[in-house]
Amino acid sequence: NYRNQWPGISGNFVTSHFSYDQKVTSLYGGLGLMVVQDNAAQTLKTTRVSGIYAYNQQVGRKFSINVGFEATYFQKSLDWNKLTFGDMIDPRRGFVYQTNDIPRGGTVSGIDFAAGIIGYSDVFYAGFAAHHLTQPNESLILGTSPLPMKITAHAGATIPLDGTTASKYSKGGASISPNILFRQQDNFTQLNMGIYIKKDALVGGVWYRNKDAFIVTLGIQSDYIKIGYSYDVTISRLGTGTGGA
């Protein structure tokens, strides 16, 4: 995955994400590896490497439950030379002075943990996850700055449109898939509501992110490959000059 948020303004957020997972029958589930690098304004960089284990339990002929656990090593670094301060500004000439602020920061690293559960069938799914269970300290200067716990709840369904069964739909035909996702971290909340429409190998969709953006997606999906593109149309007061995401 690659995401470039607000490329139309200085200080954009670029995130790159790689993941791999595989079923391991002897472990009654699967193992996964995930690497994420986030670069905020070419100034604050965060790298996360995660190992994941998921346990699978079938509780009915058509219903299963997965329970997942994640352990992460993270490193966050700050490029002090990219920061600007008020004492650097000349009223007419702009940023022309050296700051008297004492350089601080550098690099911080630590261990982070997450867990989640999801129940699913061929027709619907619902799940819950909790990240930053131990609220690790990520302060780059003196003192502590615990990373608040983040909770996520999500659900969705797949509804065939041409009278086929859910298992037949996955091989072709047409379907519609409504989805909802809710996140809360400290005092911040996010609600995403969206819908996908699939016809054979073609997939399209639209999402609404609370008071921030509409997200349009388009892609192709087969048994062996899935490729997609999404674009965020900013509707907040930031305006379309952000370049979306």
What does this structure look like?
The chain has 1 helix and 16 strands. By secondary structure, the chain is an all-beta fold. Strands 1, 2, 3, 4, 5, 8, 9, 10, 11, 12, 13, 14, 15 and 16 form a 14-stranded antiparallel sheet that branches. The model has no long low-confidence stretch (mean pLDDT 91).
Which percent range fits the helix content? under 10%
Overall mean pLDDT stands at: 91
Strand content: over 45%
Number of helices: 1
Structural class: mainly beta
Largest sheet: 14 strands, antiparallel
Distance between the termini: 13 Å
**Can you tell me the overall shape?**
globular
Q: What is the string of helix and strand elements?
A: EEEEEEEEEEEHEEEEE
Q: From the alpha-carbon coordinates, what is the Rg to the nearest angstrom?
A: 22 Å
What labels describe this entry?
245 residues, globular
